Amino acid sequence: MARIILITGGCRSGKSRLAQEKAEKLPGCKLFVATCPPLDAEMRARIQRHQREREARGWLTAEEELDLAGLLASRPEAEVVLVDCLTLWVNNLLFTADCQKDIGEDEMSAAARVLVEACRRHPGTVLLVTNEVGMGIVPENALARSYRDLVGRCNQVVAAAADEVYLAVCGLPLPVKTSGGG
Amino acid sequence: MARIILITGGCRSGKSRLAQEKAEKLPGCKLFVATCPPLDAEMRARIQRHQREREARGWLTAEEELDLAGLLASRPEAEVVLVDCLTLWVNNLLFTADCQKDIGEDEMSAAARVLVEACRRHPGTVLLVTNEVGMGIVPENALARSYRDLVGRCNQVVAAAADEVYLAVCGLPLPVKTSGGG
Amino acid sequence: MARIILITGGCRSGKSRLAQEKAEKLPGCKLFVATCPPLDAEMRARIQRHQREREARGWLTAEEELDLAGLLASRPEAEVVLVDCLTLWVNNLLFTADCQKDIGEDEMSAAARVLVEACRRHPGTVLLVTNEVGMGIVPENALARSYRDLVGRCNQVVAAAADEVYLAVCGLPLPVKTSGGG
What we know:
3 copies of one chain form a homotrimer. Chain A is built from 6 helices and 7 strands, in the order βαβαβαβααβαββ. Chain A is of the alpha/beta class and 182 residues long.
């Protein structure tokens, strides 16, 4: 059964770097799962640069915007999987959902449980990066409010199942849950 | 003298659930104090569902939008009191204040000290739920800026008096202050 | 070589007060470095009141909006220096930058490294206050997005070099990095 590690943090808190550093301390074949569709040429260039840098250090890369559980099931050979990030996955689920019927918190929790089960069944270590988006003022935009509710639900489901949870603060990992309990 | 426990966290961080779980581990009569006026039919239905679920587990419920100190003084029989949440109480104070003369930070601190004194005089354990609202970008809306200043003041006064303080992160309680010090 | 202490936190989290309390526990001559240009009469009055209160407790005061490294080099006699705050420094750099060519994340990291070097060369203890601004929803305003990216970069560079890092939560200091490691 996989070891599951969740790294959360605010914007530019160093969470992705911390997750990569943790992954690179582990032995074996490493797979980076990008949940982010490139939105423009500049973003595509930045993503490709990061990908080349990782590949120079031996990483494989996969892109999956929606079916993270299916992707994990299809790549059992990866000994370390890093999913970056859950927030964009939630965003993709929200924008793919039938516009007449938004994805709700119960459906989000169900989708996160399916993901957690796929992580557990994976033979390697699965690291997941997410964002803290709920510690500011309530947004005036209704879609932003829904989004932050869904991200919060997703994070709670994954953190409950994780063996380790860290909050990135100024680039440093603050342990929130550790393997020995927490 | 009451034991005072403060649980803070962002939106959908699991803070209310964590507070209820902590309360239910304690023996004796439990009182839930809702500070939230139902704003519409959907919210009323959700509040009533949560209330029925708590009552099935033996909780009493009280509603108090402004005078939390008075409510605590009037209910000494409750061995465990859970106030959910201080952020809405601050909101209620802000919107009840004379529109010509907003409640200021000094008045907020004074109101929070009155609340803390009432918690201390209560014979039971008092758990209070609040929100982190100050870790985003400065809001453009002046009222939102005042509100986050007031919530911050309130949280500081209550945390200084509390025996235990937890920050909910992804549904997990990160200890910020513990009974043995902190 | 200076001891470097970083205190971060949200709005009204008590970070400035915690930094002053930490500074006042240390022996020797204390220098407060304000990075904040007074924007209006009310703000000027509040700054002057705080300054008089500090001076009554023996603090010196300096104002520096941009060249914090130069200021540190020019004041070796101060045994304790408190810089409040880095967020306004970033803001000042952003608004001073050539409007045709915004300061980017690489330039921000470089400026933060120059600051860190000046802190290290200073013979005293340097405390720096900053803000968490990245734990809310992505702002719609592009300048606000740039600003929170730059603050995040700055905080990461300073935290990596700091001996101690604290996150202020409800006025309480949560240790993120401690002298013995972290």
